[in-house]
Amino acid sequence: MKRDVYLNNQPLEEALENFMRFLSEEGALTAGTPETIPVEEALDRITAGPIYARISSPHYNASAMDGVAVLAAKTTGASETSPRQLKVDQDFVVVDTGDPIPPDFDAVIMIEDVNYPDNETIEIMAEASPWQHVRLMGEDIVAAEMILPGNHKIKPADIGGVLAGGITEIAVHARPKVALMPTGTELVQPGSELKPGDIIEYNTGVLAAMVRQWGGIPIRREITVDDYDLLKKTMLSAVEEADILLINAGSSAGREDFTSSLISELGVMVTHGVAIKPGKPTILGVIKGKPVIGVPGYPVSAILCMDLFLKPIIYRKQGLLPPPVAKTEAIVSRKLVSPLGLEEFVQVKLGRVGEKIIATPISRGAGVIMSMVRADGMLRVPRTSEGFNAAETVQVELHRPLDEVLETTVVIGSHDIAMDVRGD
Amino acid sequence: MKRDVYLNNQPLEEALENFMRFLSEEGALTAGTPETIPVEEALDRITAGPIYARISSPHYNASAMDGVAVLAAKTTGASETSPRQLKVDQDFVVVDTGDPIPPDFDAVIMIEDVNYPDNETIEIMAEASPWQHVRLMGEDIVAAEMILPGNHKIKPADIGGVLAGGITEIAVHARPKVALMPTGTELVQPGSELKPGDIIEYNTGVLAAMVRQWGGIPIRREITVDDYDLLKKTMLSAVEEADILLINAGSSAGREDFTSSLISELGVMVTHGVAIKPGKPTILGVIKGKPVIGVPGYPVSAILCMDLFLKPIIYRKQGLLPPPVAKTEAIVSRKLVSPLGLEEFVQVKLGRVGEKIIATPISRGAGVIMSMVRADGMLRVPRTSEGFNAAETVQVELHRPLDEVLETTVVIGSHDIAMDVRGD
Prior knowledge:
- The structure is a homodimer.
- By secondary structure, chain A is of the alpha+beta class.
- Chain A has 4 domains: 12-32 and 175-316, Molybdenum Cofactor Biosythetic Enzyme, Chain A (3-Layer(aba) Sandwich), CATH 3.40.980; 35-57 and 139-172, Molybdopterin biosynthesis moea protein, domain 2 (Alpha-Beta Complex), CATH 3.90.105.10; 62-135, Molybdopterin biosynthesis moea protein, domain 3 (Molybdopterin biosynthesis moeA protein, domain 3), CATH 2.170.190; 327-423, MoeA, C-terminal, domain IV (Beta-clip), CATH 2.40.340.
- Chain A has helices at 12-25, 156-164, 203-213, 228-241, 259-266, 299-316, 369-374, 402-407, 409-423, and strands at 35-38, 51-52, 62-63, 67-70, 84-87, 92-95, 107-110, 114-118, 121-124, 134-135, 146-148, 169-172, 177-182, 187-188, 199-200, 217-220, 244-248, 268-272, 276-277, 283-287, 290-295, 327-332, 336-337, 343-353, 356-361, 377-381, 387-388, 393-398.
- In chain A, 50% of the residues are buried.
- Chains A, B: Residues 179-316 form the MoaB/Mog domain.
């Protein structure tokens, strides 16, 4: 019955900095070999390097209007009082938008400004200036110009820019592969018949979706029971297959928690135990140059841990930093007591009352997945603070844009207040 | 050479309202038959109705800690001065986090608070209160509780909530299928050898990515040349196959612009010509109860048109409204002249100068796709306005979050200023 009862209690910023430095020194944060893919499939992928135009766009001088191409010099002096007649082919040709301007012509007159006395003649009432209504070659893109920088996330318009520059395939960073390894003898697949003690293994579904949102590829491993040799075998094969290994549960100091011993045996355990709540039993390590994170089993802890430690790795391996988290100021609706020495993360609902935004803490149980389903944002209580007083102003990290949150507050808010009384 | 030279000039809000009302009356905005899919594949899909829990979570009373389960009544009076000894099985059983609390027990004492005088005995120094460190059945989710409302976009944590409630498959709105029909004899596929007059057909790549971002499924049709019968045949088959038809180019009044005649022949043309710049020749119609949009050929016009007219349809067909567009106040860097009678959309770069955010208009050519590649946001010049003066305060609709924009302003900004001189 002897147990390794306690863990470290490393401050979050120190744990994160140490881990990232360690990974960086191990080369575990660099992008893999770029992939070459068709531009049209590149939405949301990240350029592996700058992309330069192969051709100009337009690649010829093009009519910008439906009308007639003319030589501007031949229109000099035309006016309403002295209209000028021009002969087809010799003095003008009909052009549609996008048509090339033929040699010996240098301007376009809009169709609305032209009269047709007969089928071979037009009459104009104004001079054309050279290159009017002409899209000059390279107006949009000049050959060899940089269309997109490296490490750039591709949006719809970028696809157009790259194709217009004559490029059909581009090199993008490989999407990091993240092996998700659920462990625990008590776990059963969703949909199984349940007996007391069975825990539905739903974390992997959540974690896989998070990996996808950040640009990674989740590789779902089957549930591994709490058996040292089986876990070891699975971890080794997962590390072969993936760029990052995530072990879910088995990270506290309970009697069947082998994760930390196995990471130490197979690689380096950098940190075991971070001064955060929830998420304290987090393990950070490296096996064969691959980042390995041991994530606690409770869903709220697991989600938080992913966000704090896995997200920056996935982004960096794609040449990016995680995007800044949108925040809002809000007023805490009630006193919030939090332990000294741990940085606590509290999920909140937001609502507008008059001019103010009110943040109401919701269930703080690490096992309450519904707190994450309902939350609009999250606030941090620093390690050195014992909490907030009612009506204190705080910074809330938003889970979704504030406009969206406030738009749906009435309906979802009232539902939640009722449920929260029970859930907390 | 006779031409139907001009179009309507309907104000945007009127065109949009008319079109949406018409579509609504035709039943063209309702969602299709819902799909049933595995929860784990439901990220970013929209629930077709509320989702209720089938079971409670936890579905039994569970230990919230590693420790020992006891009957609280048997611990009454235990203290540091009078420790209480308890016998295994009879008075306590060892439990790990998540284990069921056996019958006849009602509390858990944390392992850290227990001494082991021998293998069959523990000693405690404090009373346990009933249900301490126990996660009661239904603490997270109560059977029959609503986990998610209908018309809700599924985020990672939601997947956990639904699975925890014993649900493995859910009904979601079908993703609207959008047929994208590029038309024009001058168009060539990206990657083709080019001769003057050939236009690389890159719009479909952009439009397909936009459709995907909004939750739709793009169906790419091949380029159709400007031939009335061919266009008619393709439009009819596209309308059979898809929920929405988008015809790109052929929407102005040029000599080969058959789109409007064909929409009138095959269905109803609701609007031809909207008082916007760019995007004036937009066509809005319905064929066989399906929305049909004729989008101008210039890329900037096409993108704007998609955003104004297609986006609300795709969202509504999934039971949603488009999310609110994030905005920021900014100061226009230079005088901006805009025609009366047209609502103009001007792409801008943003930068911070001291406390202020400065919006610099970039190229306004409807053919300049790079203006969309470079833009951070867009401002609207109302129909009744002739533009803005330098240093006037304006509302900018953001293409990406302001924090992200300002983070990268220095690098991309300077690149852009150099390029803009040429491009505008």
